[in-house]
């Protein structure tokens, strides 16, 4: 891994547990590879545009025949896809909103998941056109979604696994910060949980 893309989706900024844990992941990656370059994309601070009619029509036009308006409609999509293409690792930091991904992360997905640009449709199913890369997803939840204490649905995990696989990204690990009290500071217990996860998935 020579470069990693960090996507952040929490609107809580300085009080976000998912952001804090993702920084720990980045620190461990840099400890393993000191020359690692980190590209940051804060989806909450600068949400990607929602796809519209112009985008939807332009995405089906071959690049060689697109006019200026169609290229303009896809310009932000090309920027976001370019960030994936120039990095070899991915870290996603996100809360779970209403059992699934936040709107800003869904907007990013809609911009980068493009037919014949990042995936192809074949008789056997969709085939990703991007290279696989180590991917780490940090998820903060207000309730339990894993193990014997799980009491709420989790549509985020299978959805992200399917989306990333469609892009061609299949090497994915999830770190869950569950039942996080709202507005609390980063605790010693949470730090120990994150360090234990890092030691298992990113040993020094």
How much of the sequence is in beta strands?
15-25%
Assigned CATH class: Alpha Beta
Report, as a whole number of angstroms, the end-to-end distance.
Answer: 15 Å
Strand order across the largest sheet? 2-1-3-6-7
Query: Could you give the count of β-strands?
Result: 7
Mean pLDDT: 93
Stretches where pLDDT is under 50 for at least 5 consecutive residues are none
The ordered string of helix (H) and strand (E) elements is EHEHHHEHEEEHEH
Please give the share of residues in helix: 25-40%
* Class from secondary-structure proportions: alpha/beta
Count structural domains: 1
Shape-level CATH architecture:
3-Layer(aba) Sandwich
Largest pleated sheet:
5 strands, parallel
Question: Outline of this structure?
Answer:
With 204 residues, the chain is α/β, with parallel strands linked by helices. Helix content is 37%, strand content 19%. It has a single domain, classed as Flavodoxin domain (Rossmann fold, 3-Layer(aba) Sandwich).
């Amino acid at each position: 891994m020579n470069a990693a893309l960090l996507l952040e989706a929490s609107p809580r900024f300085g009080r976000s547990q998912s952001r804090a844990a993702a920084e720990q992941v980045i620190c461990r990656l840099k400890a393993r590879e000191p020359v690692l370059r980190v590209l940051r994309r804060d989806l909450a601070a600068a949400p990607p545009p929602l796809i519209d009619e112009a985008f939807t029509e332009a995405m089906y036009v071959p690049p060689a025949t697109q006019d200026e308006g169609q290229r303009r409609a896809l310009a932000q999509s090309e920027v976001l896809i370019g960030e994936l293409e120039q990095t070899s690792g991915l870290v996603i930091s996100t809360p779970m909103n209403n059992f699934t991904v936040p709107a800003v992360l869904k907007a990013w997905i809609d911009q980068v998941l493009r037919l014949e640009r990042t995936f192809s449709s074949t008789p056997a199913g969709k085939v990703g056109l991007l290279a696989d890369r180590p991917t780490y997803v940090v998820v903060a939840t207000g309730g339990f979604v894993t193990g014997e204490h799980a009491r709420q649905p989790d549509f985020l995990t299978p959805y992200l696994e399917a989306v990333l696989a469609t892009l061609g990204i299949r090497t994915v690990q999830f770190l869950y910060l569950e039942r996080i009290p709202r507005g609390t500071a980063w605790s010693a217990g949470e730090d120990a949980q994150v360090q234990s996860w890092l030691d298992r998935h990113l040993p020094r």
